[in-house]
Amino acid sequence: MAAGSLVEVRGLRKRYGYYAALDGIDLDIREGEVFGYVGPNGAGKTTTLKVMAGLIGKFEGAVAIAGVQVTRDRSETHALIGYLPQSAGFQSWRTVESALRSLGALSRVPASVVEQRMDELLERFQLGQARGRKIRQLSGGMTRKLGLIQALLHRPRLLILDEPLEGLDPASRALLKEVIRERQRDGATVLFSSHILGDVQDVADRVGVLCDGKMVTTGSIRELVAEVDLPLEIGVEFSTPPGQTAFLSEGPALAGATQVGRGVWSVRLREGTGPAAADDAIHALVEQTLHHGGRLRRIAAAEPNLDQLFARLIERARAAGRPS
Amino acid sequence: MTRGRETPGSPALMLLRDELLGFASSRVMLVLWAVLPALTILGYFVLPESLAGATGRGPLSATAFMALIMSSVAGTVAALLVGVDIVSERNRNVYDLLLIRPLRREHILWAKFGAVTISVSVACIVSLSVGLALDALLGAPVAGAIGDALRALASMVGVIALSAAVGVFFGMVTRSILVAVILILYIGQNLAFVPMLPGLLGILPDRFWLTMSITAALVGVIMWLAGVLFRRSEP
Q: In Å, how far is A199's CA from the nearest CA of chain B?
Protein backbone atom coordinates (compact mmCIF):
# COMPACT_ATOMS: atom_id res chain seq x y z
CA MET A 1 0.00 0.00 0.00
CA ALA A 2 1.31 3.48 -0.87
CA ALA A 3 2.43 5.41 2.23
CA GLY A 4 -0.40 7.50 3.70
CA SER A 5 -3.06 6.02 1.37
CA LEU A 6 -6.34 4.87 2.87
CA VAL A 7 -7.79 3.79 -0.46
CA GLU A 8 -5.67 2.16 -3.12
CA VAL A 9 -7.11 1.20 -6.49
CA ARG A 10 -4.99 -0.56 -9.09
CA GLY A 11 -6.02 -1.48 -12.64
CA LEU A 12 -9.73 -1.49 -11.82
CA ARG A 13 -11.77 -2.81 -14.73
CA LYS A 14 -15.47 -3.55 -14.80
CA ARG A 15 -17.32 -4.74 -17.86
CA TYR A 16 -21.04 -5.17 -18.49
CA GLY A 17 -21.06 -7.45 -21.54
CA TYR A 18 -19.09 -5.62 -24.23
CA TYR A 19 -19.36 -2.28 -22.42
CA ALA A 20 -16.41 -1.28 -20.25
CA ALA A 21 -17.80 0.80 -17.39
CA LEU A 22 -14.31 1.10 -15.88
CA ASP A 23 -11.21 0.65 -17.96
CA GLY A 24 -8.07 0.42 -15.82
CA ILE A 25 -8.49 2.92 -12.99
CA ASP A 26 -5.51 3.67 -10.73
CA LEU A 27 -6.22 5.85 -7.74
CA ASP A 28 -4.77 6.65 -4.32
CA ILE A 29 -6.77 8.53 -1.71
CA ARG A 30 -4.72 9.74 1.22
CA GLU A 31 -5.83 9.30 4.81
CA GLY A 32 -7.57 12.46 6.03
CA GLU A 33 -8.14 14.12 2.67
CA VAL A 34 -11.34 15.16 0.93
CA PHE A 35 -11.27 13.75 -2.57
CA GLY A 36 -13.71 14.92 -5.24
CA TYR A 37 -14.51 12.38 -7.94
CA VAL A 38 -15.74 14.24 -10.99
CA GLY A 39 -16.93 13.12 -14.39
CA PRO A 40 -19.78 13.50 -16.85
CA ASN A 41 -22.89 11.32 -16.58
CA GLY A 42 -22.05 7.69 -17.30
CA ALA A 43 -18.30 8.18 -16.75
CA GLY A 44 -18.13 5.33 -14.20
CA LYS A 45 -18.15 7.28 -10.92
CA THR A 46 -20.98 5.31 -9.30
CA THR A 47 -19.50 1.98 -10.43
CA THR A 48 -16.15 2.87 -8.80
CA LEU A 49 -17.84 3.88 -5.56
CA LYS A 50 -19.97 0.71 -5.51
CA VAL A 51 -16.85 -1.42 -5.94
CA MET A 52 -15.23 0.39 -3.01
CA ALA A 53 -18.38 -0.05 -0.90
CA GLY A 54 -18.33 -3.78 -1.63
CA LEU A 55 -21.62 -3.76 -3.55
CA ILE A 56 -20.01 -4.99 -6.76
CA GLY A 57 -17.98 -8.12 -6.20
CA LYS A 58 -16.96 -9.08 -9.72
CA PHE A 59 -14.26 -6.85 -11.22
CA GLU A 60 -10.66 -7.00 -12.39
CA GLY A 61 -7.87 -5.29 -10.52
CA ALA A 62 -7.31 -4.61 -6.84
CA VAL A 63 -9.17 -2.31 -4.45
CA ALA A 64 -7.90 -2.03 -0.89
CA ILE A 65 -9.21 0.06 1.99
CA ALA A 66 -6.79 0.51 4.89
CA GLY A 67 -4.74 -2.29 3.38
CA VAL A 68 -7.65 -4.75 3.28
CA GLN A 69 -8.86 -5.99 -0.12
CA VAL A 70 -12.59 -5.24 -0.40
CA THR A 71 -13.26 -8.70 -1.82
CA ARG A 72 -11.35 -10.50 0.92
CA ASP A 73 -12.63 -9.31 4.28
CA ARG A 74 -15.84 -7.45 3.68
CA SER A 75 -16.90 -7.34 7.31
CA GLU A 76 -13.72 -5.43 8.14
CA THR A 77 -14.08 -2.93 5.30
CA HIS A 78 -17.82 -2.50 5.99
CA ALA A 79 -16.95 -1.32 9.49
CA LEU A 80 -14.66 1.39 8.07
CA ILE A 81 -17.07 2.75 5.49
CA GLY A 82 -20.06 5.05 5.57
CA TYR A 83 -21.78 5.06 2.19
CA LEU A 84 -24.45 7.22 0.62
CA PRO A 85 -25.74 5.65 -2.61
CA GLN A 86 -26.83 7.85 -5.50
CA SER A 87 -30.44 6.98 -4.73
CA ALA A 88 -30.69 5.82 -1.14
CA GLY A 89 -33.83 3.72 -0.70
CA PHE A 90 -35.50 3.04 2.62
CA GLN A 91 -38.39 0.75 3.48
CA SER A 92 -41.23 3.21 3.12
CA TRP A 93 -43.32 1.86 6.04
CA ARG A 94 -40.60 2.80 8.52
CA THR A 95 -40.36 5.99 10.48
CA VAL A 96 -37.18 8.06 10.30
CA GLU A 97 -36.19 6.90 13.80
CA SER A 98 -36.87 3.21 13.22
CA ALA A 99 -34.85 3.24 9.97
CA LEU A 100 -31.85 4.81 11.71
CA ARG A 101 -32.10 2.51 14.76
CA SER A 102 -32.25 -0.55 12.55
CA LEU A 103 -29.35 0.52 10.29
CA GLY A 104 -27.30 1.53 13.34
CA ALA A 105 -27.86 -1.86 14.95
CA LEU A 106 -26.95 -3.65 11.72
CA SER A 107 -23.70 -1.62 11.69
CA ARG A 108 -23.05 -3.16 15.15
CA VAL A 109 -23.27 0.23 16.89
CA PRO A 110 -24.44 0.06 20.53
CA ALA A 111 -28.03 1.25 21.01
CA SER A 112 -27.11 4.15 23.34
CA VAL A 113 -24.58 5.46 20.80
CA VAL A 114 -27.15 5.20 18.01
CA GLU A 115 -29.65 7.23 20.10
CA GLN A 116 -27.08 9.92 20.87
CA ARG A 117 -25.78 10.18 17.29
CA MET A 118 -29.31 10.10 15.88
CA ASP A 119 -30.44 13.03 18.08
CA GLU A 120 -27.33 14.98 17.16
CA LEU A 121 -27.53 14.37 13.41
CA LEU A 122 -31.31 14.80 13.07
CA GLU A 123 -31.02 18.22 14.70
CA ARG A 124 -27.98 19.09 12.60
CA PHE A 125 -29.80 18.27 9.34
CA GLN A 126 -33.05 19.92 10.52
CA LEU A 127 -34.95 16.64 10.57
CA GLY A 128 -35.69 16.70 14.31
CA GLN A 129 -39.37 17.45 13.71
CA ALA A 130 -39.67 14.60 11.21
CA ARG A 131 -38.20 11.85 13.40
CA GLY A 132 -41.56 10.14 13.96
CA ARG A 133 -42.72 10.56 10.38
CA LYS A 134 -43.05 7.67 7.94
CA ILE A 135 -40.38 7.70 5.22
CA ARG A 136 -43.02 7.67 2.50
CA GLN A 137 -44.14 11.08 3.81
CA LEU A 138 -40.69 12.69 3.42
CA SER A 139 -39.74 14.94 0.50
CA GLY A 140 -36.89 13.95 -1.83
CA GLY A 141 -34.48 16.36 -0.13
CA MET A 142 -35.40 15.05 3.33
CA THR A 143 -34.85 11.45 2.21
CA ARG A 144 -31.46 12.52 0.84
CA LYS A 145 -30.56 14.00 4.23
CA LEU A 146 -31.67 10.80 5.93
CA GLY A 147 -29.33 8.93 3.60
CA LEU A 148 -26.49 11.18 4.73
CA ILE A 149 -27.34 10.65 8.40
CA GLN A 150 -27.24 6.84 8.06
CA ALA A 151 -23.81 7.16 6.43
CA LEU A 152 -22.52 9.31 9.31
CA LEU A 153 -24.16 7.35 12.13
CA HIS A 154 -21.20 5.15 13.03
CA ARG A 155 -18.48 7.82 12.53
CA PRO A 156 -16.83 5.93 9.67
CA ARG A 157 -13.15 6.34 8.87
CA LEU A 158 -13.97 6.57 5.16
CA LEU A 159 -17.07 8.38 3.98
CA ILE A 160 -18.13 7.54 0.41
CA LEU A 161 -20.80 9.88 -0.91
CA ASP A 162 -22.30 9.41 -4.37
CA GLU A 163 -23.60 12.74 -5.69
CA PRO A 164 -24.39 13.97 -2.16
CA LEU A 165 -25.34 17.48 -3.23
CA GLU A 166 -28.00 16.38 -5.71
CA GLY A 167 -31.51 17.39 -4.69
CA LEU A 168 -30.44 19.56 -1.76
CA ASP A 169 -31.45 23.19 -1.34
CA PRO A 170 -28.67 25.83 -1.11
CA ALA A 171 -28.75 25.91 2.72
CA SER A 172 -28.49 22.13 2.93
CA ARG A 173 -25.66 22.11 0.39
CA ALA A 174 -23.74 24.60 2.50
CA LEU A 175 -24.47 22.51 5.60
CA LEU A 176 -23.25 19.34 3.95
CA LYS A 177 -20.01 21.03 2.88
CA GLU A 178 -19.54 22.14 6.49
CA VAL A 179 -20.17 18.59 7.74
CA ILE A 180 -17.60 17.24 5.26
CA ARG A 181 -15.00 19.71 6.58
CA GLU A 182 -15.87 18.73 10.16
CA ARG A 183 -15.43 15.04 9.41
CA GLN A 184 -12.07 15.86 7.86
CA ARG A 185 -11.06 17.77 11.01
CA ASP A 186 -12.03 14.66 13.01
CA GLY A 187 -9.55 12.68 10.91
CA ALA A 188 -11.96 10.99 8.48
CA THR A 189 -11.31 10.61 4.77
CA VAL A 190 -14.09 11.72 2.45
CA LEU A 191 -14.60 10.62 -1.13
CA PHE A 192 -17.47 12.21 -2.96
CA SER A 193 -18.62 12.28 -6.55
CA SER A 194 -20.19 15.02 -8.58
CA HIS A 195 -20.60 15.98 -12.20
CA ILE A 196 -20.11 19.65 -11.32
CA LEU A 197 -16.53 20.74 -10.63
CA GLY A 198 -17.73 23.93 -8.97
CA ASP A 199 -19.43 21.83 -6.26
CA VAL A 200 -16.17 20.08 -5.52
CA GLN A 201 -13.81 23.05 -5.36
CA ASP A 202 -15.17 24.37 -2.04
CA VAL A 203 -14.27 21.26 -0.05
CA ALA A 204 -11.99 18.95 -2.00
CA ASP A 205 -8.24 18.89 -1.40
CA ARG A 206 -7.78 16.92 -4.59
CA VAL A 207 -9.92 15.98 -7.53
CA GLY A 208 -9.96 12.97 -9.83
CA VAL A 209 -11.51 13.48 -13.25
CA LEU A 210 -13.05 10.42 -14.84
CA CYS A 211 -14.28 10.11 -18.43
CA ASP A 212 -15.59 7.04 -20.30
CA GLY A 213 -14.29 4.71 -17.59
CA LYS A 214 -10.75 6.14 -17.64
CA MET A 215 -9.03 8.42 -15.15
CA VAL A 216 -8.17 11.62 -17.01
CA THR A 217 -6.16 13.35 -14.30
CA THR A 218 -5.87 13.83 -10.55
CA GLY A 219 -4.63 16.82 -8.59
CA SER A 220 -5.72 19.95 -6.77
CA ILE A 221 -7.91 22.43 -8.63
CA ARG A 222 -4.87 24.72 -8.85
CA GLU A 223 -2.86 21.93 -10.47
CA LEU A 224 -5.65 21.19 -12.92
CA VAL A 225 -5.94 24.86 -13.87
CA ALA A 226 -2.17 24.94 -14.51
CA GLU A 227 -2.45 21.76 -16.57
CA VAL A 228 -5.03 23.19 -18.97
CA ASP A 229 -4.58 26.36 -20.99
CA LEU A 230 -7.79 28.11 -20.04
CA PRO A 231 -8.58 31.38 -21.74
CA LEU A 232 -8.23 34.05 -19.05
CA GLU A 233 -10.78 36.79 -18.58
CA ILE A 234 -10.60 40.26 -17.08
CA GLY A 235 -13.64 41.73 -15.34
CA VAL A 236 -14.03 45.48 -15.88
CA GLU A 237 -16.56 47.76 -14.19
CA PHE A 238 -16.77 51.45 -15.08
CA SER A 239 -18.15 54.06 -12.67
CA THR A 240 -18.07 56.55 -15.59
CA PRO A 241 -18.10 54.79 -18.98
CA PRO A 242 -15.40 55.95 -21.43
CA GLY A 243 -16.26 57.80 -24.69
CA GLN A 244 -15.74 54.58 -26.68
CA THR A 245 -15.22 50.92 -25.75
CA ALA A 246 -13.59 49.48 -28.86
CA PHE A 247 -10.22 49.43 -27.05
CA LEU A 248 -11.59 46.62 -24.86
CA SER A 249 -10.94 44.16 -27.69
CA GLU A 250 -8.11 45.87 -29.55
CA GLY A 251 -4.93 45.03 -27.62
CA PRO A 252 -2.40 42.40 -28.76
CA ALA A 253 -3.45 39.94 -26.00
CA LEU A 254 -7.19 40.66 -26.23
CA ALA A 255 -9.58 38.31 -28.02
CA GLY A 256 -12.87 40.17 -27.52
CA ALA A 257 -15.18 41.75 -24.97
CA THR A 258 -18.79 41.21 -23.94
CA GLN A 259 -20.97 43.63 -21.98
CA VAL A 260 -22.48 41.63 -19.14
CA GLY A 261 -24.23 44.48 -17.29
CA ARG A 262 -24.59 48.24 -17.12
CA GLY A 263 -20.99 49.47 -17.29
CA VAL A 264 -19.74 45.93 -16.69
CA TRP A 265 -17.63 44.09 -19.28
CA SER A 266 -15.91 40.76 -19.53
CA VAL A 267 -12.69 40.96 -21.58
CA ARG A 268 -11.36 37.69 -23.00
CA LEU A 269 -7.64 37.16 -23.45
CA ARG A 270 -6.15 35.13 -26.28
CA GLU A 271 -5.45 31.45 -25.57
CA GLY A 272 -1.98 30.85 -24.21
CA THR A 273 -1.79 34.30 -22.60
CA GLY A 274 0.22 33.94 -19.41
CA PRO A 275 -0.27 35.81 -16.13
CA ALA A 276 2.42 38.40 -17.01
CA ALA A 277 0.71 39.29 -20.30
CA ALA A 278 -2.60 39.49 -18.40
CA ASP A 279 -1.03 42.06 -16.04
CA ASP A 280 0.17 44.07 -19.07
CA ALA A 281 -3.32 43.92 -20.55
CA ILE A 282 -4.87 45.22 -17.29
CA HIS A 283 -2.36 48.07 -17.24
CA ALA A 284 -3.18 48.97 -20.88
CA LEU A 285 -6.94 48.85 -20.20
CA VAL A 286 -6.57 51.27 -17.24
CA GLU A 287 -4.59 53.70 -19.42
CA GLN A 288 -7.09 53.50 -22.30
CA THR A 289 -10.06 54.04 -19.95
CA LEU A 290 -8.49 57.23 -18.56
CA HIS A 291 -7.49 58.31 -22.06
CA HIS A 292 -11.12 58.07 -23.22
CA GLY A 293 -12.45 59.99 -20.23
CA GLY A 294 -13.76 57.00 -18.29
CA ARG A 295 -13.36 56.08 -14.62
CA LEU A 296 -12.95 52.57 -13.24
CA ARG A 297 -14.71 51.08 -10.22
CA ARG A 298 -13.09 47.65 -10.52
CA ILE A 299 -10.70 45.77 -12.81
CA ALA A 300 -9.29 42.33 -12.07
CA ALA A 301 -8.40 38.99 -13.66
CA ALA A 302 -11.40 36.69 -13.19
CA GLU A 303 -11.12 33.39 -11.32
CA PRO A 304 -10.76 30.45 -13.72
CA ASN A 305 -14.11 29.16 -14.89
CA LEU A 306 -14.28 25.62 -13.50
CA ASP A 307 -17.05 24.49 -15.81
CA GLN A 308 -14.85 25.50 -18.71
CA LEU A 309 -11.90 23.72 -17.11
CA PHE A 310 -13.99 20.56 -16.69
CA ALA A 311 -15.26 20.74 -20.27
CA ARG A 312 -11.70 21.23 -21.55
CA LEU A 313 -10.40 18.21 -19.59
CA ILE A 314 -13.18 15.97 -20.89
CA GLU A 315 -12.76 17.27 -24.44
CA ARG A 316 -9.03 16.60 -24.25
CA ALA A 317 -9.56 13.07 -22.87
CA ARG A 318 -12.10 12.19 -25.55
CA ALA A 319 -9.85 13.57 -28.31
CA ALA A 320 -6.96 11.45 -27.00
CA GLY A 321 -9.14 8.33 -26.97
CA ARG A 322 -10.48 8.87 -30.49
CA PRO A 323 -8.74 6.99 -33.35
CA SER A 324 -6.90 9.40 -35.65
CA MET B 1 -16.10 3.07 14.26
CA THR B 2 -17.81 2.93 17.61
CA ARG B 3 -18.26 -0.46 19.23
CA GLY B 4 -19.22 -1.46 22.72
CA ARG B 5 -20.80 -3.95 25.09
CA GLU B 6 -24.37 -3.20 24.03
CA THR B 7 -23.58 -4.49 20.54
CA PRO B 8 -26.79 -5.88 19.03
CA GLY B 9 -27.36 -9.60 18.37
CA SER B 10 -27.67 -11.67 15.23
CA PRO B 11 -28.30 -9.60 12.08
CA ALA B 12 -30.63 -12.29 10.73
CA LEU B 13 -32.85 -12.08 13.83
CA MET B 14 -32.79 -8.28 13.76
CA LEU B 15 -33.89 -8.32 10.14
CA LEU B 16 -36.61 -10.90 10.87
CA ARG B 17 -38.00 -8.76 13.70
CA ASP B 18 -37.96 -5.69 11.44
CA GLU B 19 -39.62 -7.52 8.57
CA LEU B 20 -42.28 -8.93 10.91
CA LEU B 21 -43.04 -5.41 12.10
CA GLY B 22 -43.24 -4.24 8.50
CA PHE B 23 -45.58 -7.00 7.30
CA ALA B 24 -47.68 -6.93 10.47
CA SER B 25 -48.32 -3.20 10.04
CA SER B 26 -49.22 -3.51 6.34
CA ARG B 27 -52.78 -3.18 5.04
CA VAL B 28 -52.59 -6.61 3.43
CA MET B 29 -52.15 -8.17 6.86
CA LEU B 30 -55.06 -6.20 8.24
CA VAL B 31 -57.20 -7.72 5.48
CA LEU B 32 -55.85 -11.23 6.14
CA TRP B 33 -56.16 -11.06 9.91
CA ALA B 34 -59.51 -9.30 10.28
CA VAL B 35 -61.41 -8.67 7.05
CA LEU B 36 -60.97 -12.16 5.55
CA PRO B 37 -62.17 -14.07 8.67
CA ALA B 38 -65.16 -11.71 8.91
CA LEU B 39 -66.05 -12.25 5.25
CA THR B 40 -65.60 -16.01 5.63
CA ILE B 41 -68.02 -16.10 8.56
CA LEU B 42 -70.50 -14.14 6.48
CA GLY B 43 -69.96 -16.56 3.60
CA TYR B 44 -70.56 -19.53 5.85
CA PHE B 45 -73.98 -18.22 6.92
CA VAL B 46 -75.14 -17.72 3.35
CA LEU B 47 -74.08 -21.23 2.29
CA PRO B 48 -76.90 -23.50 1.12
CA GLU B 49 -78.17 -25.69 3.96
CA SER B 50 -77.00 -28.83 2.14
CA LEU B 51 -73.41 -27.62 2.51
CA ALA B 52 -73.41 -25.77 5.83
CA GLY B 53 -72.88 -28.23 8.61
CA ALA B 54 -72.58 -26.17 11.77
CA THR B 55 -75.41 -28.04 13.35
CA GLY B 56 -74.49 -31.35 11.85
CA ARG B 57 -76.89 -31.06 8.91
CA GLY B 58 -74.27 -30.95 6.15
CA PRO B 59 -70.72 -32.00 5.34
CA LEU B 60 -68.93 -28.73 6.23
CA SER B 61 -68.28 -27.47 9.76
CA ALA B 62 -67.38 -23.80 10.21
CA THR B 63 -63.78 -24.87 10.99
CA ALA B 64 -63.55 -26.92 7.81
CA PHE B 65 -65.06 -24.08 5.80
CA MET B 66 -62.51 -21.61 7.24
CA ALA B 67 -59.67 -24.06 6.49
CA LEU B 68 -60.91 -24.50 2.91
CA ILE B 69 -61.05 -20.75 2.25
CA MET B 70 -57.68 -20.05 3.90
CA SER B 71 -55.88 -22.89 2.14
CA SER B 72 -57.11 -21.56 -1.18
CA VAL B 73 -55.75 -18.05 -0.64
CA ALA B 74 -52.94 -18.23 1.95
CA GLY B 75 -50.21 -19.66 -0.30
CA THR B 76 -50.96 -17.29 -3.17
CA VAL B 77 -51.07 -14.30 -0.82
CA ALA B 78 -47.75 -15.28 0.81
CA ALA B 79 -45.97 -15.75 -2.53
CA LEU B 80 -47.31 -12.53 -4.02
CA LEU B 81 -46.68 -10.53 -0.87
CA VAL B 82 -43.02 -11.46 -0.58
CA GLY B 83 -42.31 -11.54 -4.34
CA VAL B 84 -43.73 -8.07 -5.01
CA ASP B 85 -42.05 -6.70 -1.88
CA ILE B 86 -38.62 -7.94 -2.98
CA VAL B 87 -38.96 -6.64 -6.55
CA SER B 88 -40.15 -3.27 -5.30
CA GLU B 89 -37.34 -2.94 -2.73
CA ARG B 90 -34.69 -4.01 -5.23
CA ASN B 91 -35.94 -1.39 -7.69
CA ARG B 92 -35.76 1.29 -4.99
CA ASN B 93 -32.20 0.22 -4.02
CA VAL B 94 -33.30 -0.53 -0.45
CA TYR B 95 -30.78 -3.37 -0.17
CA ASP B 96 -27.76 -1.14 -0.90
CA LEU B 97 -28.05 0.33 2.60
CA LEU B 98 -28.21 -3.16 4.11
CA LEU B 99 -25.47 -4.75 2.02
CA ILE B 100 -22.89 -2.13 3.00
CA ARG B 101 -23.31 -3.38 6.55
CA PRO B 102 -21.81 -6.57 7.99
CA LEU B 103 -24.52 -9.06 7.04
CA ARG B 104 -24.95 -11.70 4.38
CA ARG B 105 -27.33 -11.40 1.45
CA GLU B 106 -29.05 -14.63 2.49
CA HIS B 107 -29.99 -13.03 5.82
CA ILE B 108 -32.23 -10.58 3.97
CA LEU B 109 -33.98 -13.35 2.03
CA TRP B 110 -34.50 -15.62 5.04
CA ALA B 111 -35.82 -12.68 7.06
CA LYS B 112 -38.39 -11.92 4.34
CA PHE B 113 -39.31 -15.59 4.06
CA GLY B 114 -39.69 -16.01 7.82
CA ALA B 115 -41.71 -12.84 8.28
CA VAL B 116 -44.21 -13.67 5.51
CA THR B 117 -44.56 -17.31 6.58
CA ILE B 118 -45.23 -16.30 10.19
CA SER B 119 -47.60 -13.43 9.32
CA VAL B 120 -49.75 -15.48 6.92
CA SER B 121 -49.69 -18.48 9.29
CA VAL B 122 -51.03 -16.24 12.06
CA ALA B 123 -53.87 -15.29 9.70
CA CYS B 124 -54.65 -19.00 9.29
CA ILE B 125 -54.60 -19.55 13.06
CA VAL B 126 -57.00 -16.63 13.50
CA SER B 127 -59.37 -18.03 10.87
CA LEU B 128 -59.32 -21.59 12.23
CA SER B 129 -59.83 -20.31 15.78
CA VAL B 130 -62.81 -18.27 14.62
CA GLY B 131 -64.16 -21.42 12.90
CA LEU B 132 -63.76 -23.51 16.06
CA ALA B 133 -65.40 -20.80 18.19
CA LEU B 134 -68.28 -20.59 15.75
CA ASP B 135 -68.77 -24.36 15.75
CA ALA B 136 -68.79 -24.34 19.55
CA LEU B 137 -71.35 -21.53 19.59
CA LEU B 138 -73.59 -23.33 17.10
CA GLY B 139 -73.41 -26.55 19.08
CA ALA B 140 -71.37 -28.57 16.57
CA PRO B 141 -69.00 -31.23 18.00
CA VAL B 142 -65.65 -29.43 18.53
CA ALA B 143 -63.44 -32.02 20.26
CA GLY B 144 -62.71 -33.97 17.07
CA ALA B 145 -62.48 -30.80 15.01
CA ILE B 146 -59.51 -29.52 17.02
CA GLY B 147 -57.29 -32.39 15.86
CA ASP B 148 -58.43 -31.90 12.25
CA ALA B 149 -57.84 -28.14 12.56
CA LEU B 150 -54.29 -28.65 13.84
CA ARG B 151 -53.49 -31.04 11.02
CA ALA B 152 -55.01 -28.62 8.48
CA LEU B 153 -53.00 -25.81 10.04
CA ALA B 154 -49.72 -27.74 9.77
CA SER B 155 -50.42 -28.51 6.10
CA MET B 156 -51.29 -24.89 5.48
CA VAL B 157 -48.07 -23.66 7.11
CA GLY B 158 -46.17 -26.02 4.80
CA VAL B 159 -47.95 -24.64 1.73
CA ILE B 160 -47.41 -21.07 2.96
CA ALA B 161 -43.69 -21.69 3.55
CA LEU B 162 -43.22 -23.26 0.13
CA SER B 163 -45.19 -20.48 -1.55
CA ALA B 164 -43.18 -17.84 0.32
CA ALA B 165 -39.93 -19.49 -0.83
CA VAL B 166 -41.22 -19.48 -4.42
CA GLY B 167 -42.14 -15.80 -4.00
CA VAL B 168 -38.62 -15.00 -2.76
CA PHE B 169 -37.11 -16.88 -5.71
CA PHE B 170 -39.21 -15.13 -8.36
CA GLY B 171 -38.61 -11.81 -6.60
CA MET B 172 -34.91 -12.37 -7.30
CA VAL B 173 -35.44 -13.54 -10.89
CA THR B 174 -36.96 -10.37 -12.29
CA ARG B 175 -37.11 -6.63 -11.63
CA SER B 176 -40.62 -6.33 -13.09
CA ILE B 177 -43.53 -6.62 -10.66
CA LEU B 178 -45.85 -7.77 -13.46
CA VAL B 179 -43.46 -10.54 -14.56
CA ALA B 180 -42.99 -11.63 -10.93
CA VAL B 181 -46.76 -11.84 -10.43
CA ILE B 182 -47.21 -13.86 -13.63
CA LEU B 183 -44.39 -16.26 -12.72
CA ILE B 184 -45.74 -16.73 -9.19
CA LEU B 185 -49.32 -17.35 -10.36
CA TYR B 186 -48.52 -19.67 -13.25
CA ILE B 187 -45.41 -21.53 -12.09
CA GLY B 188 -45.20 -20.92 -8.36
CA GLN B 189 -48.67 -22.10 -7.54
CA ASN B 190 -48.10 -25.38 -9.37
CA LEU B 191 -44.86 -25.93 -7.46
CA ALA B 192 -46.79 -25.62 -4.19
CA PHE B 193 -48.63 -28.85 -5.07
CA VAL B 194 -45.46 -30.88 -5.72
CA PRO B 195 -45.12 -32.13 -2.10
CA MET B 196 -48.66 -33.54 -2.26
CA LEU B 197 -48.01 -35.62 -5.38
CA PRO B 198 -46.43 -38.70 -3.71
CA GLY B 199 -49.32 -38.78 -1.26
CA LEU B 200 -51.93 -38.39 -3.98
CA LEU B 201 -50.24 -41.12 -6.01
CA GLY B 202 -50.26 -43.39 -2.94
CA ILE B 203 -46.49 -44.01 -2.88
CA LEU B 204 -46.11 -44.07 0.92
CA PRO B 205 -48.69 -44.67 3.67
CA ASP B 206 -47.85 -41.72 5.97
CA ARG B 207 -48.68 -38.97 3.56
CA PHE B 208 -48.74 -36.13 6.09
CA TRP B 209 -45.10 -36.49 7.25
CA LEU B 210 -43.93 -37.28 3.75
CA THR B 211 -45.58 -34.11 2.46
CA MET B 212 -44.06 -32.02 5.27
CA SER B 213 -40.57 -33.47 4.64
CA ILE B 214 -40.74 -32.85 0.89
CA THR B 215 -41.99 -29.33 1.60
CA ALA B 216 -39.07 -28.61 3.95
CA ALA B 217 -36.56 -29.95 1.42
CA LEU B 218 -38.07 -27.93 -1.42
CA VAL B 219 -38.08 -24.77 0.71
CA GLY B 220 -34.37 -25.30 1.43
CA VAL B 221 -33.49 -25.84 -2.24
CA ILE B 222 -35.55 -22.90 -3.52
CA MET B 223 -34.16 -20.52 -0.86
CA TRP B 224 -30.62 -21.67 -1.67
CA LEU B 225 -31.22 -20.95 -5.37
CA ALA B 226 -32.65 -17.52 -4.50
CA GLY B 227 -29.48 -16.85 -2.43
CA VAL B 228 -27.29 -17.82 -5.40
CA LEU B 229 -29.22 -15.41 -7.63
CA PHE B 230 -28.90 -12.63 -5.04
CA ARG B 231 -25.14 -13.15 -4.69
CA ARG B 232 -24.74 -12.98 -8.46
CA SER B 233 -26.90 -9.91 -8.92
CA GLU B 234 -25.30 -6.48 -8.78
CA PRO B 235 -27.13 -3.41 -7.62
A: 25
A186 interface with B at CB cutoff 8 Å: no
pLDDT at B188: 80
Nearest to A295 by CA among A246, A241, A230: A241
Residue by residue, DSSP assigns A140-196 as HHHHHHHHHHHHHTT--SEEEESSTTTT--HHHHHHHHHHHHHHHHTT-EEEEEES-
pLDDT at site B56:
52
More confident position, B163 or A317: B163
Q: Classify A207 as helix, strand or coil.
A: strand
Instruction: Name the residue of chain B whose CA is nearest to A155's CA.
Output: B1
Which residues of chain B lie closer than 8 angstroms to A89, CB-CB?
89, 92-94, 96-97
What ipTM was assigned to the predicted interfaces of this complex?
Answer: 0.79
Domain A5-227 is of which CATH architecture?
Answer: 3-Layer(aba) Sandwich (3.40)
pLDDT of residue A6: 92
Q: Choose among B18, B97, B102: nearest Cβ to A108.
A: B102
Size of interface A-B (CB pairs under 8 A): 99
Closest residue to B1, CB basis, from A80, A83, A112: A80
pLDDT digits (tens, 9 = 90+) for A47-78: 999 999 988 888 999 999 998 888 877 777 88
Kindly report the pTM of this predicted structure.
Answer: 0.80
* Portions of chain A given CATH number 3.40.50.300: 5-227
Q: Which of A79, A90, A154 sits opposite B94 (nearest CB)?
A: A90
In chain B, where the domains are located:
11-233
**Are A89 and B4 a contacting pair at CB < 8 A?**
no
List all residues 6 or more positions away from B209 whose beta carbon is below 8 Å from its beta carbon.
none
CB-based burial label for B133 (10 Å; 0-12, 13-18, 19+): middle
3 state DSSP class of A245: coil
| Chain-chain contact of A50 with B235 (C-beta, under 8 angstroms) | yes
